[in-house]
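Loading example: each entry is read as two labelled lines plus one structure line.
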Amino acid sequence: MKIGVLAVQGNVREHAAMLRRLGADVVEVRKPEQLDGLDGLVVPGGESTTFMRLMRLYGLDEALRSFAGPVLGTCAGMIVLDREHLGMIDLEVDRNAYGRQVASFEADLRLRGDDEPLRGVFIRAPRVREAGPDVEVLAEHEGEPVLLRQGRFLVASFHPELTEDTRVHELFLDAVREAISVRA
Amino acid sequence: MPEIGTMRVKSGLAEMLKGGVIMDVTDAEQARIAEDAGAVSVMALERVPADIRRDGGVARMADPDKIREIQEAVTIPVMAKARIGHFVEAQILEALEVDYIDESEVLTPADTAHHIDKWKFTVPFVCGCTNLGEALRRIAEGAAMIRTKGEAGTGDIVNAVTHMRAVFGHIRKLQTLREEELYAEAKELRAPFELVKWVAENGKLPVVTFTAGGIATPADAALCMQLGADGVFVGSGIFKSSDPSTRAKAIVEATTHFEDAHVLARVSQGLGDAMAGLSAADLRPEELLETRGW
C-alpha cells in the first residue's frame, strides 16, 4: 500500500509516522509526477494559503483534481479540498473559525458507532458552514460536524496525527484497501 | 470539556508551520507581501533586526497598534517579540491574542538571570538557543517551539550554521551514550535529566526546531533545511533586499524544494540585490545579539 503525503509544507512527519506504523509505504509529494502509482493521498495540516500557492506553481492543484484514489484531509487539508479551493468535496468551510491560537483546544469526540472517545486536537481550526447532501458526518463537537466523509474523501477539522490514536487513519486505510480490491 | 493552552495545542501550531518560512514584517503592506509569497506566519516588529542594530538604543515589544494593523491585514498566524524575561510584555501580547510570542534576544533583555515562566501562559512561546543545553532549559520553562539562533540583522549565515551543528550534533552524541552517562551529561548541559533522556531516546528535541538569523538567500534557507531545521525565520533578509516580493517567493519555494538543486538554481536567478549585510566575524563581542539568553 503506497500512500502519498502532500509535502509542500505542514505536518507531514506525523502523518507519515502514523501511516508507517499502520503498515503503509509513504511517499512525500511535492510535484505532480510523485502522485503516479499512489493508492491514497493525505493532505495534512499546515497553512492553506501556502499550500495553494506552492501547488499552483507546479500544477499540483490540477494533478490533485485528477487523482482518483481515497484522500484524507486534516485541517488545512480539509480547507484545500473544499468548494472554494480545489472543489473536490461538497463543503463550505470557514478558516480559523474558532479564533486565534489562544482559542485552540482539545476535546473528547465520539466517533459514530464507537463508544471509545477520540481525543480531537483543534488548532486554529476551520468550521464547516455548509455540507452537501452526499456528505455524511462521522463525528461532531458540540453539535457541529468535525469528521466527514463523501465517497472516497475523508476530512477532519482536527489533527488525528497529533495523538497516538490511529482510528481515523485506519478508517482511511480501510477505504484504500477497498479501492485496491475493487481495482484488482 | 474543551481544554485550551495544553502543551499539545501549543506545540501543535508549530507542527503545522513545519517546512515553512516565517517572515519579519513591520506594517500591513509587508505582511500582505509575505502572505502572498506563501509565508506560513509573520513576525510583527517595530524595526527589523538590521535597523535595531543600526539605530542602537533599547529595543522593546512592538506598539499594540502596529500588531493590530498586521493582524487585520493577514489570515496566517501573527507572532510578536517580547524582551527576554519581560513577562508583562508577554501578558500584553497574550491580551492582544498574538498566535505565538518570541522571547527574543533581538530585543534588549529585561532580566539578566531569568527567562519568562512560559507555563503560566495560554499563548505558546518560541525561544532561541545557541546549544542543546540552552534549548532544553527553554523547553523546561515551557517553550513550545525552539529556533536556533544566528546573528540577526547581519545577512551572514555562519552563526546559524554553527548553532544548528551544535544542537543537532549534540543530539547525535547523546544517542551514543549509555543511560548512566546521561546523568553527568544532564549536569554538563544544565538541563533536566528527563528531557535529556527523552532527547537521547528520540534523536530530536521534543518541540519543533526552526532556525533563524542571517538567512538572506534561497540557498541559505535550503542549507538550513538540509542541516536539519524544521523551517526558517527570515528577518531583515527579505525587506532589506532590493525586491522583497520576488525574494520572499523564492525563499518559500527553496524551503519546500530544499533537496532539489535544479529548483534551487532556478529560484536563485533574477532576485536583484540581497541585503548588503555585515560579516558576523567583524562584530565586537558586545555587538552580538546571539549571546543574550542564559
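Residues 45 and 76 of chain A are 5 Å apart (CA to CA).
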